Amino acid sequence: MPATIDRSLEERAINTIRMLSVDAVQQANSGHPGLPMGAAGMAYVLWTEYLKHNPRNPSWPDHDRFVLSAGHGSALIYSLLHLTGYDLSLDEVKNFRQLGSKTPGHPENFMTPGVEVTTGPLGQGFANGVGMAIAEAYLAARYNRPGHHIIDHYTYGLVSDGDIVEGVAMEAASIAGHLQLGKLIYLYDANDITLAGTANISMTENTAARFEAQGWHVQSIDGMDTDAVRGALDAARGETNRPSIIIASTVIGYGSPAKAGTSGVHGSPLGPDEVAATKERLGWPLEPAFYLPEDALALFRSAVDRGAGDEAAWNAAFDAYAADYPDLAAELWQALAGDLPEGWDAGLPSWQTGDKAVSTRKASEAVIQAFFENVPGFIGGSADLNPSTNTGMKGGGDFGPAPAGGIQGALGGGWSYAGRNIHWGIREHAMGSAVNGMAAHGGVLPFSATFLVFADYMRPPIRLAALSHYRSIFVFTHDSIAVGEDGPTHEPVEQIMSLRLIPNLTVIRPADANETAEAWQVALEHRDGPVVLVFSRQDLAILDRSGARGSLDEGAYILQEPDRRPDVVLIGTGSEVELAVKAAALLHEHDIAARVVSMPSWELFEQQPEQYRESVLGPDGTHRLSVEAGVTTGWQRYTGSHGGSVGIDRFGASGPGGKVLQHFGFTKEHVAAEALRLLNRKAEADAIDTWTARGETAGKEAKGDQGHS
Fold first, then answer.
1. Burial 413-436 (b: 16+ CB within 10 A, else e)
2. Mean pLDDT value across residues 488-513
3. Chain segment 236-246, per-residue pLDDT in tens
4. Is the pLDDT of residue 613 over 80?
5. I need a labelling partner for 378 at 20 to 30 A (CA). Which of 14, 338, 397, 540 fits?
6. What's 274's domain CATH number?
7. Which residue has the higher pLDDT, 192 or 469?
8. Is 108 within the bounds of a domain?
9. Burial 283-295 (b: 16+ CB within 10 A, else e)
């Protein structure tokens, strides 16, 4: 707490936050004024007295991170950013929620200087903050040395009743408590109001007890009392072994005579009359709108000089560190810049045609093992599935404190915050969102891993990663109905296609071990958005690429070309490329020239020049057949007016993987027959198509349910 506090100036500064937010929402006639009005006191204390930040250089490495998880209260952070001197003009605040402004309806990290993460969907920011704290802990453990604490900052957040209720936040709270992330501090704006009414119409649990049970340091205070806020923040910063949540009781819409404490101020402007009444109640000038008292503005703007001083001190500390530990300093600086070490991929494995077949998940394991020591920022893990996703870094250490009972790390290297393997537990929702927080923090290149069918649990963070341009890597294995015995609950059929629908998301499904190595190269080098890697459970042959024209990084390429102009182009992805090769050989026996195209990534293919794309798929009018063990919707984009698809437009079945594939028509005979049908050679097709000859039931499935061409 400051030695002396000018209470009059403090109140004026807090009301400046309130009324700047109110005026912005009212001018837009859209927004959520209630949270900024109630939480302004807490925000004032945090941003003017505790938060280590430099408004003129928001991204300097050791600044404290701040997450407004309650993104609907975006007017609050825009007010704070403008008042403390960030590159966000008053005109931008006045342009709140307008097209093209830097003040969108919910905070977007690439839109507004000083906004750390994109928030809006409740609970996501809560989980992002957990990821940020993980990144800070890892970097501190790896790079700090005695007398050189160059990574030493907090992650703060403002969370709401809505955040606390969301399931993703509870998963994130669980892992944060388990990992003992002592530099994570959340202010919980407990105003007991949600959009539909008072919070107790849907939530009556003991929130404090719940967080205590999850290993958090919990305090309950009057959030309208700035001294109580200061005391709670001091106590939270003094707790080093537990994340902290400060349950701060506040009054939503504070100052509004008619709407304070009601849901009516949660998601709607006050209205002109109530704005005037609120200003009168708070002793605020009715005119002009967006009034900023000079002394309050000067108080906020002191953050500029203070932040510049903090950064200058850190720069000097880093120079001293670099003098003592030049190699570590160079490595850290490279990681913070997001660059990969030169030659990081020099030792990647390769496979030869004729080598033993291997699943792409196992090939991925070999690739990770080859490069992870060369990429110190690479860190992540799976949702309790390392033995199945094969994403563990052997010898890389396990992240976090050692569990009770002396449990040894499963992957070697011991337990510490410098460990590379994060044991996310069965928490896919939080895992994806925390990975995004790690990516937003910087200095690390994070990944997660689980089965492809559980991409449904992770869709919100994947979507936000794409929207926010996060450098997140999402690994998914067990990629098709070949999962087999686990049955349709675990057999993804629509997931790959649904992921392809997300803008700015690169999805890669490699066909064999060599494509897997190339896929990892693309994933690590890709800087403008997330990458999804999709791997098989079953073993796949090493493809003969001796005559290939192109490579995986072009999205699609000619794997195998016939000795004359092709009659048909077979387009495969992942495990179905091998099937396409076998079908092409069968078609050759029928004097059909088939080109085989491997298309591991639609998104990379779309980035290629039109001339290249046509050279791979052939000109318009070419007979093309896609082969993928998933839904066929969308493949018309590439098969064109004279094409078709072999896929599965229904749920799978339980049984041995190979037999399930056969049951649904993924045989060389059926693929070849479908190609013959495209070429109007029905009699020959029927003669070889053992799949359609299986009986009346199979035939009805083929025509009615599965979408085969």
1. bebbbbbbbbbbbebbbbbbbbbb
2. 97
3. 999 999 999 99
4. yes
5. 540
6. 3.40.50.970
7. 469
8. yes
9. ebeeeebeeebee
The residue among 437, 421, 420, 414 whose CA lies nearest residue 385 is: 421
Q: What is the mean pLDDT of residues 611-622?
A: 97
- 253 and 379 inside one domain: no
Query: For the domain that residue 575 is a member of, what is the CATH number?
Result: 3.40.50.920
Evaluate whether 322 touches 329 at the Cβ level (below 8 Å): yes
- Spatial CB neighbours of 236, under 8 Å, sequence gap ≥ 6: 185, 217, 219, 244, 246
Last residue of a domain, one of 534, 560, 576: 534
Distance CA(600)–CA(290), nearest Å, equals 53
Determine the straight-line distance between the first and last CA of the chain, rounded to whole angstroms. 72
pLDDT at 570 over 80: yes
Q: Which of 428, 603, 628, 674 is flagged as catalytic?
A: 428
CA atoms of 334 and 380, how far apart (whole Å) = 19
Which residues are 219's β-sheet partners? 246
Rounded to an integer, what distance in angstroms lies between the CA atom of residue 12 and that of residue 125?
A: 29
To the nearest 10°, the Cα dihedral for 334, 155, 46, 228? -160
Strands (E), 319-368: none
pLDDT higher than 70, residue 705? no
Position of tokens 């359609």? 692
Told to judge if 518 belongs to the known catalytic residues of this protein, a careful annotator would answer: no
Among residues 284, 299, 314, the one where a domain terminates is 299
Compute CA 606 distance to the chain's CA centroid, rounded to the nearest angstrom. 22
Query: H helices of 442-533, where?
Result: 459-468, 495-500, 513-525
150 shares its domain with 274: yes
Are 202 and 274 in a shared domain? yes
How many other CB atoms sit within 10 Å of the CB of residue 352? Answer: 9
Are the C-beta atoms of residues 136 and 183 closer than 8 Å to each other?
yes
CB distance 36 to 280 below 8 Å: no
- 129-159, pLDDT tens digit by residue? 999 999 999 999 999 999 999 999 999 999 9
HSE, side-chain direction, 13 A CA sphere, residue 617: 31
Give how many domains the chain has, as a whole number: 3
Instruction: State yes or no: pLDDT of 259 exceeds 70.
Output: yes
Listing DSSP states for 327-374 in one string gives HHHHHHHHHHTTPPPTTTTTT-----TTSPPB-HHHHHHHHHHHHGGG
Taking alpha carbons only, the member of 102, 406, 33, 426 closest to residue 253 is: 33
The reported pLDDT for the residue numbered 348 is 97
* Within a domain: 353: no
The conformation of residue 387, written as its DSSP 8-state character, comes to: H
Q: H helices of 155-217, where?
A: 161-165, 167-179, 207-213
**pLDDT of amino acid 695:** 36
Q: Which amino acid is at 596?
A: V
DSSP-derived pairing of the beta strands 244-249 and 217-222:
parallel
pTM of this prediction? Answer: 0.96
Q: Are residues 48 and 15 in the same domain?
A: yes
Report CA 178 to chain centroid distance, whole Å.
21
Q: Which residues constitute the domain of residue 262?
A: 7-299
Radius of gyration of the chain (CA): 29
41 has a pLDDT exceeding 90 = yes
Q: Is the pLDDT of residue 409 over 80?
A: no
| Per-residue DSSP letter, 601 | -
In one-letter notation, the amino acid at residue 402 is A
pLDDT at 504 over 80: yes
Token pair belonging to 243: 């994340």
